Amino acid sequence: MFIIIYKKSTKHIVQVRSDDSTVPVSTETWLNIYIKDNKLTADQATDLTYVEPASIEVNIIYGKHLWNESTQQIDEDPSYVPPTPIVPAEPTV
Question: Higher pLDDT residue, 90 or 76?
């Protein structure tokens, strides 16, 4: 099973899971685990949904990739701005 969890409001992908176990966990269970692990509010949880597309090999960057409902594909967010790298402070002597 392959699952993509994303926000309904923005289409941003928040989690991708692949489960090839002999007793697979349901997609609804994976969604609930994500909600619990991230301590989401009820409003935040209702903004999430999931799809089970064919397995896709892609390097997902959360915040950069969107689920395109009309094409059933992963797209890059054209407004994505990479985070500013953290530069370690110079050690003081």
Answer: 76
What does the block give as tokens for 61? 């960057």
Q: What is the residue whose two structure tokens read 């969604």?
A: 31
Q: Give dist(CA 83, CA 52) in Å, integer.
A: 29
Q: What is the pTM of this model?
A: 0.83
pLDDT in tens, 38-49: 999 999 999 999
Alpha-carbon distances, residue 70 vs 40, 42, 73, 82 (angstroms): 27, 27, 8, 26
Strands, sheet with 48-51, edge to edge from the N-terminal-most edge strand: 13-18, 2-7, 48-51
